[in-house]
From TrEMBL:
Keyword set, alphabetical order: Kinase, Transferase
A GO molecular function held by the record: kinase activity
InterPro entries: HATPase_C_sf, HATPase_dom, His_kinase_dom
KW Transferase (keyword) present: yes
Keyword Kinase: yes
Domain Histidine kinase: 770-975
Protein name in UniProt: Sensor histidine kinase
Domain of life: Bacteria
Pfam families found in the cross-reference section: HATPase_c, HATPase_c_3
């Protein structure tokens, strides 16, 4: 007898199709965003909340789901909608053009299990009720439960405020999947038996960590769903429809965004965050033509302070960005594999090209690949070989660190995992290892995409886990085609074997070297001019100081004698002092003055004093003249106008004479130079006529050499006269070339200095890493040994001192390494009193020996706030340590701590910070201390910034407490007093 039977499905099938299939968290997020795209969402976003418990949510404003749609489609695996190619009705598209469907298997929604074990699904269709469903995906991990025995609770409601009262009912109904109910005794017995077996299995694998216990704990937790849903525009009524997935029991790749302190700065957490940013930033094709059905997307992280958005759809990096790079190819590959498009090599457009593949692709059946588009741009590895502006080149290099790679996009959305650094689908790095120069292309220096469509390339299908295309003849064919295009363009246009590199690169290198040399010469000349002015004007400035002092004395005498005529007679001398002040102003200051820095600062301070004295003198003369002079005001004003007009006219006349003399001299020089250059061509070309006439050279050769000579001379003369004309043109419209050179020189000097600093920081980082690695172990060994010694030997003063010294040593090393030792570091309530006690304990002997008064106001001592001690104490240690250094030799040695308006203030009676140094004070490696390293204040700023606090130098104003160096620390949430 033949019996008909059917498959029996275990609940674990859902786990296999969902969580276990998805490659990683970025891929899971991408799948859910694609579902939003299929639902005609205009926006979709991933929100990560560092709440208790940590929560994540995906919100979209697509068509949403009614109860029937949710039950009949979302809860049905492999729905027919994914294989049904019928057009979506206009009313479901929400006014958007039709979108190619991204989903293929009807299981993408199950990837939510890879993000969080518990999810609350909330959805709404326009003009329909809200629906909600609570799911714990760990129910589907039990291999002993049949799928039909798991029941998911679904509710409908009308207003957002109703959800809070329904969540507990959802938890109760979902919890029933662990115990069953008396309504169905057979199902109850199956569930109880299944969980008993699974608990036994769990106990053997992970003792004390039963899945059933974790499910119960999660369902007992209180999640602020309503607060999180406030970020969903459908919940607030701003959009009529959409779906929200609110998840808890998160994957560690999402909780990495909620970490704080040192956990947040660990290498593992940083790597996880970078992977999400790199993958999702390119979710949609940035190189597609403008227009079309574009969906906005983003990742929003909610921690203390305003939310941050590490991922969003970027503008400004589309096809025009690729075209601006050193090398660029763009075109269309037809079904026969022929590439037709444009090529740009070393900044030069080479026009339309056609590349025929070495091997034609399959064109029939399941092996066939259809047409696709390709666009790739790249930049030279060495700055001197690039046609890009230096500032642009630096930005491109910086972007390549996080956004480089060759991606694949299907119908405008990214196909994972292509474009990631670890993926080498097109064998770019493999070929590069054979011969980097010839193969040219490098994943880390290229940007671009392969654009396919589902309609033209139905055989290019994703693997079930979305970790790439299924390995079939079609995927291998497109791989071979792209590899062939990259190989051909590298060898023909870009690589070391190409004629274009050999012909064009020397000119680029020469141009960049010439530009660098000219820039260096200009900076050198500007520095020389500045030093010359500084030397030549110093004596005149000192004389001006004496002159102004004499005028002040004469004005005092005239005022004391009530001598109106005497006051009036001082007017020409005061006008002369004003003119001298203008004459003695220095040109723009270069960034690096070397051994002239001290001389410059002396000049600057004296000039500032003279300028202030002149201004005060002029103001006082005006006031006293009005008081004493009986002349009619209009006569005084007329006389003053005449004097000022004469001063302006004299100055302009002087400039006119100087400029005219310089232009005349320059005109004579240019005329002579051009007359000489005019003879250069004839001088070198005339011998060719003699050679042709004598038969030693053919006519063709002579003409070619003449043309080559003309081109060479024209190029050489262009490099001399065109920049000259451009400079004159800039002068004619008022461009300050000297100021521009000063700015450019300062910027280049800054960048070069930062490179040196980074190299130095790398060495410090190695030392700190070794210190961090060993400190915890050494601390424990030291503490254990001293403790054992104390038990086995009678207490002595020497032993007590050793214990104290060991503790202080660890405290100081802890400050340097910024790690947690001796039990870790927790956020706690700190007070100003705690800081004072800590500082006096840390610096006690030094303060006492040097006779320094370290005091704190009552406002500081009573200030209270929440923070990690390791984030606050090292900052005060560093600033007070600097004060100890600069107070040496001062007549008054005082350090004062105060607090006002959410700010902690620190001041001392040292020499203070020179105003030219104040802007650099928190830069890495900036220091004026002998043998100082310039790391402390930089670390202070970075450490405080990690907690949302800010530190600044206070040069003057109401926050300045003492006449020396003053700092203000602004706490993120202020403090309680």
């Amino acid at each position: 007898m033949t019996e008909a039977v059917s498959f029996q499905t275990r609940a674990r099938t859902i786990d296999h199709l969902g969580r276990e299939q998805i490659a990683d968290v970025p891929t899971a997020v991408s799948e859910l965003w694609k579902n939003a795209y299929d639902a005609y969402a205009r926006t979709v976003s991933l929100h990560i909340y560092s709440a208790d418990p940590p929560t994540a949510a995906i919100y979209d404003d697509g068509t949403g789901m009614s109860r029937s749609a949710f039950v009949d489609k979302w809860l049905v695996v492999g729905t027919e909608s994914k294989v049904d190619d019928r057009a979506v009705s206009a009313d479901q598209r929400q006014g958007l053009p039709e979108r190619p469907r991204q989903g293929q298997k009807g299981i993408g929604r199950l990837s939510v299990a890879a993000l969080g074990s518990v999810v609350l699904v909330v959805s709404k269709q326009a003009d329909a009720r809200f629906i909600a469903c609570l799911v714990d995906w760990r129910l589907f991990e039990n291999p002993y439960i049949f799928l039909h025995d798991i029941k998911l609770p679904v509710v409908e409601f009308d207003r957002p405020e109703e959800l809070e009262g329904l969540v507990e009912n959802l938890r109760t109904a979902l919890r029933e999947n662990l115990t069953g109910s008396d309504d169905d005794p057979a199902r109850r017995d199956r569930l109880v038996d299944a969980w008993v077996q699974f608990d036994e299995l769990d106990q053997g694998r992970t003792p004390g960590n039963l899945t059933s216990a974790r499910i119960r704990a999660a369902l007992a937790a209180r999640v602020p769903y309503e607060a999180h849903l406030a970020d969903w525009p459908v919940w607030t009524g701003d959009r009529p429809s959409g779906t929200a997935l609110v998840m808890t029991e998160l994957n560690s790749a999402l909780t990495a965004w909620t970490l704080e302190g040192e956990d947040a700065t660990s290498e593992e957490a940083g790597s996880i965050r970078d992977s999400l940013v790199r993958t999702l930033t390119g979710f949609s094709d940035p190189y597609a033509p403008a227009g079309g059905s574009v969906m906005d997307y983003g990742v929003v992280v909610h921690q203390a302070g305003p939310p941050t958005t590490p991922v969003s759809r970027e503008e400004g990096y589309g096809i025009d960005f690729l075209k601006s790079l050193d090398q660029y190819i763009e075109g269309h590959v037809d079904e026969t594999g022929i590439f037709r498009g444009t090529v740009r090599a070393f900044g030069k457009d080479l026009g339309e090209v056609e590349l025929v593949p070495a091997q034609a692709p399959p064109t029939t059946g399941r092996d066939r690949i259809g047409p696709f588009d390709i666009a790739i741009g790249t930049f030279e590895g060495e700055r001197q070989a690039s046609v890009l502006d230096p500032d642009v080149y630096r930005e491109v290099v910086k972007r390549a660190e996080t956004h480089s790679g060759l991606s694949i996009y299907r119908d405008g959305l990214r196909v994972m995992p292509y474009g990631r650094p670890e993926n080498d689908f097109f064998k770019i790095e493999e070929r590069r290892q054979m011969h980097a120069g010839r193969e040219f292309w490098a994943s880390r220096r290229m940007f671009g995409r392969i654009a396919i469509t589902r309609a033209d390339n139905p055989n290019l299908r994703d693997k079930a886990g979305r970790e790439g295309l299924i390995d079939n003849s079609a995927s291998r064919a497109i791989q071979l085609l792209v590899k062939d295009i990259l190989r051909t363009t590298a060898r023909r246009y870009f690589g070391s074997d190409s004629t274009y590199r050999k012909e064009l690169l020397p000119g680029i290198l020469a141009d960049n070297e010439a530009a660098a040399a000219k820039s260096k010469k200009a900076r050198s000349q500007q520095l020389a001019n500045f030093r010359k002015a500084l030397r030549s004007q110093t004596a005149a400035l000192q004389a001006a100081f004496s002159t102004v002092a004499t005028i002040v004395q004469d004005l005092d005498a005239a005022v004391n004698a009530n001598d109106a005529d005497g006051v009036w007679s001082l007017a020409p001398r005061i006008d002369e002092a004003v003119s001298i002040r203008a004459d003695l102003r220095l040109p723009p200051k270069p960034r690096n003055l070397g051994n002239f820095e001290e001389q410059y600062r002396g000049y600057r301070d004296l000039y500032s004093s003279v300028a202030n004295e002149v201004e005060e003198l002029r103001t006082r003369w005006t006031e006293e003249n009005e008081r004493l002079n009986p002349r009619p005001p209009v006569d005084v004003a007329r006389s003053h106008l005449g004097r000022n007009q004469k001063a302006v006219t004299d100055r302009l006349s002087g400039w006119k004479r100087a400029i005219s003399a310089l232009l005349k001299s320059e005109s004579v020089r240019i005329d002579a130079q051009i007359d000489q250059d005019m003879k250069a061509f004839y001088k070198d070309a005339a011998p060719l006529l003699v050679d042709v006439e004598a038969g030693r050279t053919s006519l063709r050769t002579a003409i070619e050499e003449m043309d080559e000579l003309r081109d060479r001379l024209t190029s050489e003369f262009s490099e001399v006269y065109e920049p000259y004309l451009r400079a004159l043109g800039q002068l004619s419209v008022g461009v300050d070339l000297e100021g521009a050179f000063a700015y450019a020189g300062a910027r280049e000097s800054t960048l070069e200095r930062r490179l040196e600093q980074i190299q130095g920081l790398a060495q410090i980082g190695i030392s700190v890493e070794i210190l961090s690695h060993e400190l915890g172990t050494l601390d424990r060994r030291l503490a254990t040994s001293l403790s054992d010694l104390a038990k086995s030997a009678p207490p002595t003063p020497a032993l007590g001192e050793a214990q104290r010294a060991g503790s202080e040593l660890v405290e100081r090393l802890r400050f340097l390494s910024r790690i947690q030792v001796s039990g870790g570091d927790e956020r706690q309530t700190l007070s100003g009193e705690d800081i004072v006690v800590y500082l006096k304990k840390f610096f006690g002997p030094a303060i006492e020996e040097r006779g320094i008064d370290l005091s704190a106001t009552l406002a500081f001592r009573s200030a209270r706030f929440m923070e990690f001690p390791s984030r606050i104490f090292p900052v005060f240690i560093n600033i007070v340590n600097n004060s100890l250094y600069w107070l040496a030799g001062r007549p008054v040695k005082e350090i004062l701590l105060d607090a006002v308006d959410g700010k902690l203030l620190i001041g001392d009676t040292g020499p203070g910070v020179d105003k030219d140094d104040q802007g650099n004070l928190f830069e890495l490696f900036f220091t004026r201390r002998i043998r100082g390293r310039g790391v402390g204040l930089y670390l202070c700023r970075q450490t405080l910034a990690a907690g949302g606090h800010r530190i600044e130098y206070v040069p003057d104003g109401p926050l300045r407490r003492l006449p020396g160096a003053n700092f203000a620390i602004t706490l993120r949430n202020g403090f309680d007093g």
